[in-house]
Specification:
single chain, 168 residues, mainly alpha, two-stranded antiparallel ribbon, 4 strands, 65% helix
Length: 168
């Protein structure tokens, strides 16, 4: 084992502490990966709610609010195309499950086709795309907890921003 000395610029067992400060790692994950993972649930949930509210004449203002949050989550993501494709794939899978478990519905079928198309095009033409961060090889407890925290924060934001709550 290498020499270990004091903090900030001195030599440690893994290198200099300056190297540790310059690394973009947190919980052994890249910061960009954690940011995109945290933005996944707001993007997916608010996209679903925006589309669902857009078809209601009385809830158009909800559709605008939800779409604004979904677009903001997409803008804040580092890998926008990856977030969009994964979100579209998630929605396509949910719609396909809905088609299998519930009676036939043409609107759900059209939504399945429309959200599956970006996924199929990406799987065909986006084989070895170079991402700005390295994806982890396995999904660990830190990833699961981070995802659950993102989901809870998204639902809390929806509750706080809802005009039906009585907080204000």
């Amino acid at each position: 084992m290498g020499p270990m000395q004091g903090p900030l610029g001195k030599t440690t067992a893994v290198g200099t502490s300056q190297d540790v400060l310059n690394s973009r790692q947190f919980f052994s994950r890249d910061i960009g990966y954690l940011r995109d993972m945290a933005l996944f649930w707001p993007f997916v949930l608010y996209s679903i709610f925006a589309v669902a509210s857009a078809f209601s004449a009385t809830d158009k203002h909800f559709a605008i609010r939800f779409a604004t949050v979904a677009i903001a989550a997409l803008i804040l993501a580092k890998e926008k195309l990856l977030l969009f494709v994964v979100g579209a794939g998630f929605i396509a899978i949910q719609c396909a499950i809905n088609l299998v478990l519930h009676p036939w519905n043409w609107a759900v079928f059209v939504a399945t086709i429309l959200t599956a198309c970006p996924l199929l095009v990406a799987s065909r033409y986006w084989r070895n795309r170079k991402l700005s961060y390295r994806l982890p090889r396995e999904f660990r407890l830190v990833d699961a907890l981070w995802s659950i925290a993102s989901l809870c924060a998204s639902l809390l934001l929806m509750y706080v921003a809802s005009p039906f709550n009585h907080l204000w």
